[in-house]
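debug: dumping io for the single-chain case to check the tokenizer round-trip. Nothing else runs in this session.
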Amino acid sequence: MISDAELLAAAARTLEGSAFRLHGRDPATGLDCVGLIAASLGLIGRDICVPNGYSLRRCDPAPFLSHAQLAGFREWEGSPSAGDVVLVRPSAGQFHLLLAVSANKFAHAHAGVGRVVITDRPQNWPTVRQWRLSDD
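debug: decoded output
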């Protein structure tokens, strides 16, 4: 049986190439990193309340962290696997979400490239938090 986490990873793969748009929630018009997670969850039948009101830089993620639990994720430590969501810090004052599509590949909405990409995880982006999807 395929787990919801594996389905989530497969859903994220289908969104590769979608345009980047800050606060974007629709693959047809563009996604940001939060929108990528939300759209992937929607594709597997898990609609969630998605946070808004954040900026691309200088944003404190603390007010938004409870959304992960509400979406069915639990905090996780250890090596990522397909379906895990990782909050990273690409630079001082900037936070970004990655969705693992395998143990070493991640989907994310890349503002610089202007689209959703699947890449290796940048080694210089430290992990702030990590979540694993529950199957319930």
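debug: round-trip ok. The chain has one domain: 4-133.
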